[in-house]
């Protein structure tokens, strides 16, 4: 069985795959134009969505594609069509996302940036820090990753609010709602975390109207998709002190151009798409599990529903 590995860090993936099964026949690279013939000879692909999409445009089609990312936006382009299985990365990002969010929750409560600024000026910072206990944290997009984040936040004594696509109760959230409930729920949240996927319903959802519903002491964190935020509206909300701050991990264009106003917006911290990286060993474990499922005609983890877009 020949497997094509098409990724920026393809050697990391091939090394991990051969540790699991040295007999695997792998063809790997990071340039789609060099792998057209290999793509024709491999019915199974493991790859970065933007590179896989480029290879698909050469008219090459496998039986199954395993994405190395949770997001598969490049593969949802209008000029691409599918008669194959597509699976996205699931079950590998929850703890990474929780660690990322905790970093900035605690940095805010402990006034880390302010203390660094005071230290640079040789000043003693004597203001009392805050605590996460009792804070209301809203996770907008309480799917697999969001639920894992919520579970890891339980020991901190926070009040967890979840936003899902359908009405239902989910442990450990104290309350759940849908996007229709979002404006009302925003009024009491101390931290608002966007983890929504990129769909037609979620594009530009974070606009001036929603930011105006948030508390002036609230922190907005976008670790979902850059397309969800109206950049100019977020900047205006921060400048007018409608929000206490924002942490932006994902942007509409990446890397973010040097002339983008986000770089200079007071109260906005950029984290350069580092929230939940695709670690090779975890992706390969998922891929190998799905490979066994594929070969045995079993339900595959993270299979994409093309109608929903995720």
From TrEMBL:
Tell me where in this chain the D-isomer specific 2-hydroxyacid dehydrogenase NAD-binding domain is found.
103-275
Q: Which domain of life is it from?
A: Eukaryota
Q: Name one GO molecular function term.
A: oxidoreductase activity
- In Pfam terms, one family for this protein is 2-Hacid_dh_C
The reply to whether NAD figures as a keyword in the UniProt entry is yes
The reply to whether NAD figures as a keyword in the UniProt entry is: yes
Could you list this entry's UniProt keywords, alphabetically sorted: NAD, Oxidoreductase
According to UniProt, the name of this protein is D-isomer specific 2-hydroxyacid dehydrogenase NAD-binding domain-containing protein
Q: Which species is this record about?
A: Adineta steineri
